[in-house]
Amino acid sequence: MTGPPGAGVGDGDLAMPRYALRRALEWLTAQPGVRPSRYFALYLPLYRAEITAVLPESQEYDVLDRFVERALADGGMRTTTDIASFLGLDHRMVEKVCAFLESLRHIAVDAAPPGGSGGRITLTELGRRSAAEGVRWVERESRQYLYFEAFGCRPLPRRFYQGSEVRVLTRAELAGAQFPDGARGYALPAREWRPVALTELAGRRDRDEYNVAPELRRIDALAVDERFLPVFLVENGGSGGSGPRLLAVSAAAEGRDTFLEEFCNRDTDLGALLDAEERIEPGPQWADWLRRRGQSASVLRPRPDGVWRATLPPSAWGANGRFPLTRIGSFELAKGLFLQLWCDSVGLRREACLERATQMLRNRANRNVPAFEGQLARLRAQLELGPTSPGVADVRDRAVATGRPDLVAWLPAG
User: 268-276 and 258-266 are packed helices; what angle lies between their axes, rounded to 10 degrees?
Assistant: First the structure.
């Protein structure tokens, strides 16, 4: 199990945004019983299956198509001669209509008997459905990609296909990708592809949750190749911690990605790799980090849950300080370790809360009143503020005062 050449260095694109891990750590450290101690960068192996499938599509009937199929379904007609006579149509016209319906797989035509003028015609299942529902159903070929984790070939949920932040890399792209803060990205070996995995997925009643539309029929794999998903694993290792050893963070989930956690915690190769990793003492690491930024190492203390915190004076924050207000309560990352930056001033933490809440509103996806209220509540808890202050009205006032009333026009007034 080796890391790809160049992982974590160079000018390649980030394998996962830095803020994704910071945001997840903020969420994780607020959970009861969780004691995160260090993180690992991982390229999780996937299989990408290119599939072809049949997708039913409804169309308006042409008049003659509909009458011919009704003659077959309700009139008991079985030959073009019978249909032409029953409907009073030209025989050649009926033959053309039947040839078209046969190309749509609405009818099946047997070979003509010796000396006969036409074969026996029967409606297919698709033709019977169309005649019964009064719409012309046709089958179109659909192609798409499906992703399976490469440990047990389980399909990935739909959320992994959504959002521009979810990146899936080829092996060639691994050398150019990097995790934040120089974290080494390990590429795990894949287990053998199980062709039956696609059959199992096609037969699931909940397959829509795995990006397979319920309408798809006759699903077949055209090709299967390997891909890699950038993931962070956070070790939940301190004494008194509860839950799994590894907590997974991906760009496809906010907070913990429990789908990835399940098989990462089962994989013995992965466990052995992490056990073999050199453990770096966080105290000296962060003391050196602070000194290089003109801060005393005396501000370092582990929190009761074991997470290290640097409590900086008010002078270190804001326009005249070393750190922006928005970093209060957030995390610094380095060498698989993380440090929470803190300030004991409740007033500055409240200002930080307002600044970050206003920044959240710049993302249109956050402009939903219940969702934003939930985000604001989590932010207050993270910054150890009161349960109601600052509130939505305070955020609205801040946005208006800073010349951005457009950000809060959708919020209810005061």
Answer: 80
Dist. CA 211–CA 213, nearest whole Å: 6
Query: Do 282 and 275 form a contact (C-beta atoms < 8 A)?
Result: no
Burial (CB < 10 A; 0-12, 13-18, 19+), residue 393, is middle
Q: What DSSP element (H or E) covers 382?
A: helix 369-382
The better pLDDT of the pair 366, 204 is held by 204
Separation between Cα atoms, residue 156 and residue 165, nearest integer Å? 16
Handedness of CA 189, 191, 192, 198 (dihedral sign): negative
Q: Cα separation of 129 and 114, whole Å?
A: 32
Of the candidates 215, 63, 246, 249, the residue with the CA atom closest to the CA atom of residue 140: 215
Quick one: how far is CA 132 from the chain centroid?
40
Q: What's the mean pLDDT in 380-406?
A: 88
pLDDT of residue 16: 61
pLDDT of 5 higher than 50: no
Question: Tokens for 39?
Answer: 């993180």
The residues, any chain, with a CB within 8 Å of residue 276's CB and separated by 6 or more, are none
- Do 69 and 138 meet the contact criterion of CB atoms below 8 Å apart? no
Q: Which two tokens stand for residue 139?
A: 């089958």
Separation CA 236–CA 265 (nearest Å) = 11
Residue of 200, 223, 225 lying closest to 45 (CA atoms): 225
pLDDT digits (tens, 9 = 90+) for 306-358: 889 999 999 999 888 889 999 999 998 888 888 999 999 999 999 999 999 98
Contact 202, 212 (CB under 8 A): yes
Report cis status (omega within 30 of 0) of the bond before 155: no
- Quote the pTM value: 0.71
CB atoms within 10 A of CB 181: 17
Interval 302-311: pLDDT, tens = 988 888 999 9
In sequence order, the β-bridge partners of residue 121 are 109
Please state the separation of Cα 364 from the chain's center in Å: 18
Are 373 and 392 in contact, with CB atoms under 8 Å apart? yes
CB 36 within 8 A of CB 182: no
Assigned token pair, 363: 């993302």
pLDDT for the residue 178: 67
The residues, ordered by sequence, that sit 6+ positions from 148 with a Cβ below 8 Å of its Cβ are 46, 47, 49, 154, 155, 156, 197
